[in-house]
Design brief:
CATH architecture of the largest domain: 3-Layer(aba) Sandwich
Distance between the termini: 27 Å
Number of strands: 21
CATH class of the largest domain: Alpha Beta
Bound molecules: magnesium ion
Number of helices: 15
Strand content: 15-25%
Helix content: 25-40%
Largest sheet: 6 strands, mixed
């Protein structure tokens, strides 16, 4: 679980996360709000997802921000990318705060900071907020208390911006059908509105903001989306769509009921985007070589980064990339904004179906790779030593240390990455030959276990 709160650190890879009224109490949220307000010093846009604890945590953050003199623009319950787009397009805002725990179970909530350009806050700025937080909460403030202004229409503006970035007329004429699972999360209003405006006939599942969040186990994986996959198998819908709780990520199901892995989505959207404009596609080292093979065939180039959407987004900005994203359904489209954007991913997939044929058929054109995802227990104190020991055992492989250790062979690769939040290493082994991927993964785990005995 993404909950790294310690005595010197608050923010994990996706903001602050914790169990409500245990780690994440109103008093704690108030102090975090005060620290954020002291750092941002200005007008701050705030939004939340549909979690039952959202009002309580948001109110505490509001109080902290206003205590330090910040004026608040309250967007209410909207997806994270709506808040990010609002901040990006309103230069008068000093930043944003999103109250969300994304795909975590309902007992969790979280606080995530957005920079004034709408991107996820860089670690260096989070450290400044942590510095203010751990200095202690001032008992008095000289600031004139801030105000709250309710903002209406941010979601509609965001959806209209998305529609302007795709061939809306072609999508409208195609008369597509979709089944949409919002996990009772923040997309309950935005994605149905997008589909309606694009003349896509939609059947919705878990699209009730008052419903039991998230409507099914929270991570949008194949196992957790049985209802959506089942409905896609028995209906004539062209596209199945599932979001996580704050709708920055999207996972797709093809007509007929085939779950589409995030790697395949990345490859297909990359190919579709490269047909419009040649250039660089950015993705972390954990993504399948499927993406690289498809991108090369389409005349593009892959730039690999460490895992984490802020890293991908920043690399995309520096490289002037055409598209980028992660294999967990987080897709970033530079013409809209430099962050994961769930509804934009939906619009682009609809456009791809209209231009390049049914999703199930497009998938058949992709090369097949086999990836084995394993893990190995390793105490925190031995993580560095294990990586060092393994990096001396690359054999015939080429070493890449962008994130953890990736060893690239002629017929596949192995990646070992320390988890930032658990005492484990994640081990991925991939090849076009399933037997090779399986054997290499097992051998690598055995070798790591041997190393652990002596370090
Ligand atoms: Mg999310």
């Amino acid at each position: 679980m993404d909950n790294p709160m310690t005595e010197t650190r608050l923010f994990g890879t996706n903001g602050i996360r914790g169990v409500v009224n245990k780690d994440l109490t109103p008093e704690f949220a108030l102090k975090v709000g005060t620290a954020i307000g002291t750092f941002m010093k200005g007008t701050v846009a705030v939004a939340s997802d549909t979690r039952a604890s959202g009002d309580m945590i948001r109110s505490a953050v509001f109080a902290g921000l206003m205590y330090t003199g910040c004026n608040i623009l309250d967007l209410g319950v909207v997806p994270t990318p709506v808040l990010q787009y609002f901040v990006k397009t309103h230069p008068e805002t000093a930043g944003g705060v999103m109250i969300t725990a994304s795909h975590n179970p309902p007992q969790f909530n979280g606080i995530k900071c957005i920079s004034s350009d709408g991107t996820e806050m860089a670690r260096s700025d989070e450290e400044k907020i942590e510095g203010i937080f751990f200095k202690g909460h001032p008992e008095t403030s000289d600031a004139k208390p801030g105000t709250v202004e309710k903002i209406r229409g941010a979601a509609e503006t965001y959806i209209d911006a998305i529609i302007s970035k795709v061939d809306a007329s072609a999508i409208r004429h195609a008369g597509l059908k979709a089944v949409l699972d919002c996990a009772n999360g923040a997309a309950f209003f935005t994605t149905p509105l997008l589909l309606k405006k694009l003349n896509v006939k939609a059947t919705t599942l878990n699209a009730d903001p008052q419903g039991e969040f998230p409507g099914h186990p929270s991570e949008p994986t194949e196992e957790n989306l049985k209802d959506l996959i089942g409905l896609m198998g028995t209906s004539d819908a062209d596209l199945g769509i599932a979001h996580d709780g704050d709708a920055d990520r999207t996972v797709f199901v093809a007509g007929g009921g085939g779950y589409v892995s995030g790697d395949k989505t990345l490859a297909l959207i990359a190919r579709s985007e490269l047909k419009k404009r040649k250039g660089v596609i950015v993705t972390p080292v954990a993504s399948s070589s499927l993406v690289e093979e498809v991108v090369k065939d389409a005349g593009g180039k892959v730039l690999y980064t460490a895992v984490g959407s802020p890293v991908v987004a920043r690399a995309m900005i520096s490289a002037g990339a055409v598209f980028g994203g992660e294999e967990n359904g987080g897709l970033i489209f530079p013409e809209m904004q430099y962050c994961r954007d769930g509804a934009m991913a939906v619009a682009k997939m609809l456009e791809s179906i209209v231009k390049h044929g049914p999703l199930a058929q497009q998938i058949l054109t992709l090369p097949v790779y086999h990836t084995h995802k394993l893990k190995i227990d390793c105490p925190e104190c031995k993580k560095k030593a294990l990586l060092k020991a393994l990096s001396g055992k690359c054999g015939a492989g080429r070493k890449d240390e962008t994130d953890g250790l990736k060893i690239i062979f002629e017929d596949g690769w192995v990646l070992i990455r320390p988890s930032g939040t658990e005492p484990i290493f994640r081990v991925y082994s991939e090849s076009k030959d399933n037997a090779v991927a399986k054997k290499r993964g097992e051998e690598f785990i055995a070798s790591a276990k041997e190393c652990l005995k002596i370090i």
